[in-house]
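Hi V.,

Quick status before I head out on leave. The structure for the redesign project is tokenized and pasted below; the design run finished overnight.
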């Protein structure tokens, strides 16, 4: 979930309105929505926490100093009173779980990515398919409590695709975001920013918590998700992302997502 370089004004073809402003209609509230391509929720904040999950597409959330991408294996937790902007480049189907501060006390105090288990995904999908007339009463409230229990127990992953303002590392990450198929080695990237290979490797571990190769694979996975949902052929995606063969791309995608590109496309 990297910090993005473009500003929100580039994604304002379809401006959306936040559904609640001052109060929530309940202590835990579920809401699902469909976002057209190039849409944005303008800068806002609210007194309740929010968990954002994309059923399909890749949602983006801009904070004051960070920018997160939300691929479908993860959701983003926003504690109460966090200034943020929501946006997406491709059409996306997503949901939000809003939680009043008192009920959010057991959730992380910082913005973070949470791993979405099959059970949590199933609960969210069930809520998405529930007709509005049935989304009320004690049974619905109990289901929302189970969702909250699952969110409290979800593994915190920090950031799926971390960003960095490090003066040596940031130019490398920006270049890869612009051209994820770039095949330059760590040594070549080190020369690009006028440092040593060892120094760049240390910066990757300290700033990203992973190697540059792993970060690049995660970046390519996120890019591939959007291209798959846009209907691009797997062979073309593999070529655009710099893979020597389609099979190599498929193997990487399966390792990082648990499914094949075609399986992901059908599921999305």
């Amino acid at each position: 979930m990297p910090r993005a370089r473009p500003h929100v004004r580039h994604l304002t073809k379809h401006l959306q309105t936040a559904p609640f402003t001052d109060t929530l209609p309940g202590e835990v509230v579920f809401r699902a929505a469909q976002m057209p391509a190039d849409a944005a929720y303008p800068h806002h904040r609210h007194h309740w926490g929010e968990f954002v999950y994309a059923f399909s597409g890749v949602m983006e959330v801009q904070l004051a100093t960070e920018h997160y991408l939300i691929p479908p294996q993860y959701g983003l937790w926003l504690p109460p009173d966090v200034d943020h902007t929501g946006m997406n480049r491709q059409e996306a189907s997503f949901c939000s779980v809003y939680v009043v501060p008192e009920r959010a006390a057991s959730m992380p105090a910082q913005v973070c990515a949470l791993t979405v288990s099959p059970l949590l995904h199933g609960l969210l999908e069930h809520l998405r398919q529930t007709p509005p007339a049935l989304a009320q009463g004690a049974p619905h409230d109990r289901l929302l409590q189970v969702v909250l229990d699952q969110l409290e127990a979800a593994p915190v992953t920090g950031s799926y695709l971390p960003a960095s303002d490090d003066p040596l590392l940031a130019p490398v990450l920006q270049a890869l975001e612009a051209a994820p198929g770039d095949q330059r080695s760590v040594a070549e990237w080190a020369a690009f920013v006028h440092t040593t290979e060892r120094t760049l490797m240390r910066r990757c571990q300290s700033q990203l918590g992973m190697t540059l190769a792993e970060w690049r694979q995660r970046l390519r996975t996120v890019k591939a998700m959007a291209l798959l949902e846009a209907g691009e052929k797997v062979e073309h995606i593999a070529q655009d992302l710099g893979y020597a063969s389609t099979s190599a791309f498929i193997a990487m995608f399966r390792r990082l997502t648990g499914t094949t590109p075609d399986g992901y496309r059908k599921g999305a």
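Above is the designed sequence. Residues 212-229 form the longest helix (18 residues).

G. will cover questions while I'm gone.

Best,
W.
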